[in-house]
Each structure stands twice: as structure tokens, then as C-alpha cells.
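Anyone opening a protein record will find just a pair of labelled lines. With that in mind, the following record should read easily:
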Amino acid sequence: MAAIAGLDSSGPNYEFIGIVIGESCRLKAVYRTVKGRWRRIHLRELSRKGRNRIARNFLSELSKYREEIHAISARTGVNEALMRARRLALFTPKSKIRRVCLKSLARLILYTLEEYAVREIWCDSELREIMGFTGVSVNVGQYPVELADIVAWLDFNVKRKRWTLRRKHFGLIKILDLSERLNSLVLKEIK
């Protein structure tokens, strides 16, 4: 059975990328339960109470599908990679450095998705732009992206101490730090 992936970014400069991977039917089941009465899930548009309720429901559902659904939060380090590259390549245009950085990030994301045999990728419009650097076709929006929005939001807010995970929720979301690999890829491309 082939998996699909939903991707959504959170924070400035793609700081966090939430990734949800699983079979379409499993992701739809989780989505219907988590969404509840809301028309769609976009945590930025909800009240604090609504965001917290959706996050708790999502973590609860994720624990039921621990083996079938994978939630990953990729911490990208794009800002650091851009700053480091600009310091080392003073005469390289900023636009070229940014393009190299985002293309490298897209390759790292694809490499991660290959580990899970993903056959179809859904992402938000921001990530569609960077995935375009790889030539891979992606779909925009829908339920996989809305679930990925929860993952990105959770990690963004846990890191900023606006949300705390209970002990039972540790391990449900895999934290993937791409910053060092991104730095080395960007520096290699720019030199």
C-alpha cells in the first residue's frame, strides 16, 4: 500500500515543516475526527481554545495509528544557512543564495519522503514553490496539508514554550533537524 504525504510550513523562512505520512484512508479518518465541527483546519485562523482542542485531538488520534501514520517535524535552519552562506560568499547575489538554499531544502525533504515510499505529495502553496525546484509534481491543499499544519504548529509552539507535550505524547512526532545538512549542502553548492 502506497503512502501519501502532507507538508506544511510554519514560522519565518520555512523554519518548521510539518510532515504527515500514511495511507489516504487512515489520514482521512484522522482528519474527520480531528476536524470535528470546523470547516477546515488552519490553526492560525482559530482561537487559542480551538487550536488547543485540535492539537489534543490530533495527538490522541495519532497515538491510535502509531504504526500506520508518521508525523515528522523538520526543523530546517534556513535562516542560519542563508546567513552563513552570505558571509562566506560576499559577491554572490542574495537571490542566488536563496535559490540554492531552497533547492537544497527541497532535496532534503524528498530524501526524507523516499524513506517512507511516498507516492503522492500534498503541500501548502509556499512549499509548492520550493518543491518546484526538484521537478517533482505536487498537489496543493486538502486534508493531508491540514494535518501537517498541526504538526508544524505543535513543534513551533513547543519550541517557543507556548505548548507543552505530555509524557504520553513524546515520540508521536519525530523531530528531524535538517540544519547541519542544509548548511553543508548550501556551502558546497555556492563554492
